[in-house]
């Protein structure tokens, strides 16, 4: 039988302000998480083995460290506890991944993979968790997971988990990966990271009156990020996403984005994507009710 492939989209942080730091070291931030129509895909074959197996390993990531496997195990455990009266000892699954998103690029690939796993397995295993419960479970895996579980482009606060659906002017993005992996943890523990940007109201958001507090530091640490950003800025408003390393340029339409993509230096890794208000995963789920 043909596999059902489920989308696992990328996101961009259209801006990222750091407003302070919590006692546990996590940062208090504000951001717009823009979901994209480009990403990885996952397929799931549930079985009664009780085992979780990712059949398409990612080079450099141990099976048990993969956020997909961690998400499946976390949900498996949660369902077992919630449904103690049902014999769920045999909940198992084989998982397949088509990886397209560069890792460590600030476009949320790992978190999105974890979210798609939580959402789809909850459906296939008849877990019965509601979206808020799934998002809370996802938060244990990463601050970025809830946005992908909820599935709406959003204005985010807290550590990134307080979300309100947010309307952004439709745009096409040229996203360039400067061929370096930035560790989110390394950026957030850096002494030179600014952490005192004043809070804004969601209504006041505009691309031009916001910025990314991580950008200057990452540009200093990774000259390739600085080079890519300066190149893109010649053509369109551009910014780094998340803690890097990807940089995006904003265009009105795909034709303009394609023109600039063609001018990129040879060997550049890039993709073009449209901004979406609703995740492609959730669009597919909405079209396929139980
Ligand atoms: C800041 C963002 C913006 O999108 O960066 P990117 O990872 O996308 O670049 C994300 O929210 C990241 O989310 P995610 O990558 O899931 O973060 P986690 O795994 O929870 O945390 C990675 C590390 O970043 C730090 N961290 C993360 C989020 C946050 N609000 N404050 C932090 O200080 C934590 O110290 C942790 O050690
Ligand atoms: N399924 C996964 N996809 C991508 N990265 C993963 C996955 N599982 C674990 N990781 C680890 O998470 C790190 C961050 O990945 P990713 O989410 O793609 O980047 P970012 O947080 O910068 O957007 C990777 O370098 C990798 O070691």
UniProtKB/TrEMBL annotation:
Q: What is its EC number?
A: 2.7.1.148
Pfam families in UniProt: GHMP_kinases_C (PF08544), GHMP_kinases_N (PF00288)
* Catalytic machinery residues: 11, 144
Q: Which residues form the GHMP kinase N-terminal domain?
A: 66-151
What catalytic activity is recorded?
4-CDP-2-C-methyl-D-erythritol + ATP = 4-CDP-2-C-methyl-D-erythritol 2-phosphate + ADP + H(+)
Q: Which PANTHER family match?
A: 4-DIPHOSPHOCYTIDYL-2-C-METHYL-D-ERYTHRITOL KINASE, CHLOROPLASTIC
GO molecular function terms listed in the Swiss-Prot or TrEMBL record: 4-(cytidine 5'-diphospho)-2-C-methyl-D-erythritol kinase activity; ATP binding
Which pathway does the UniProt entry assign to this protein? Isoprenoid biosynthesis; isopentenyl diphosphate biosynthesis via DXP pathway; isopentenyl diphosphate from 1-deoxy-D-xylulose 5-phosphate: step 3/6
Determine if Kinase is one of this entry's keywords: yes
User: Which named protein is this?
Assistant: 4-diphosphocytidyl-2-C-methyl-D-erythritol kinase
User: Which organism does this sequence originate in?
Assistant: Paraglaciecola hydrolytica
Query: Could you tell me which InterPro entries the record lists for this protein?
Result: GHMP_kinase_C_dom, GHMP_kinase_C_sf, GHMP_kinase_N_dom, IspE, Ribosomal_Su5_D2-typ_SF, Ribsml_uS5_D2-typ_fold_subgr
Query: Where does the record place the GHMP kinase C-terminal domain?
Result: 208-261
């Amino acid at each position: 039988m043909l596999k059902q492939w489920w989308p696992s989209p990328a996101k961009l942080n259209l801006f990222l302000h750091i407003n302070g730091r919590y006692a546990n070291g996590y940062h208090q931030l504000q951001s717009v998480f823009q979901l994209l129509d480009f990403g990885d895909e996952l397929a799931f074959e549930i079985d009664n083995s009780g085992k979780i197996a990712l059949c398409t390993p990612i080079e450099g990531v141990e099976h048990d460290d993969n956020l997909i496997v961690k998400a499946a195990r976390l949900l498996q455990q949660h369902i077992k506890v919630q449904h103690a009266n049902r014999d769920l000892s045999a909940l198992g699954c084989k998982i397949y991944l088509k990886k397209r998103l560069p890792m460590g690029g600030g476009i949320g690939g790992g978190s999105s993979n974890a979210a798609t796993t939580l959402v789809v397995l909850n459906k296939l295993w008849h877990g019965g968790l509601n979206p808020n419960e799934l998002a809370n479970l996802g938060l244990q895996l990463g601050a970025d997971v809830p946005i992908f579980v909820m599935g709406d482009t959003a204005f985010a606060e807290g550590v990134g988990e307080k979300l309100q659906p947010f309307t952004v002017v439709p745009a096409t993005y040229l996203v360039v990966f400067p061929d370096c992996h930035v560790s989110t943890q390394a950026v957030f523990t850096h002494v030179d990271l600014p952490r005192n940007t004043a809070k804004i109201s969601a209504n006041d958001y505009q691309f031009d009156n916001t910025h990314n507090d991580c950008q200057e530091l990452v540009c200093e640490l990774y000259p390739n990020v600085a080079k890519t950003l300066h190149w893109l800025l010649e053509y369109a408003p551009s910014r780094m996403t998340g803690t890097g390393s990807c940089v995006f340029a904003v265009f009105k339409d795909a034709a303009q984005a394609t023109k600039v993509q063609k001018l990129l230096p040879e060997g550049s890794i890039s993709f073009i994507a449209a901004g979406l208000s609703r995740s492609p995963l959730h669009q597919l789920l909405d079209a396929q009710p139980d």
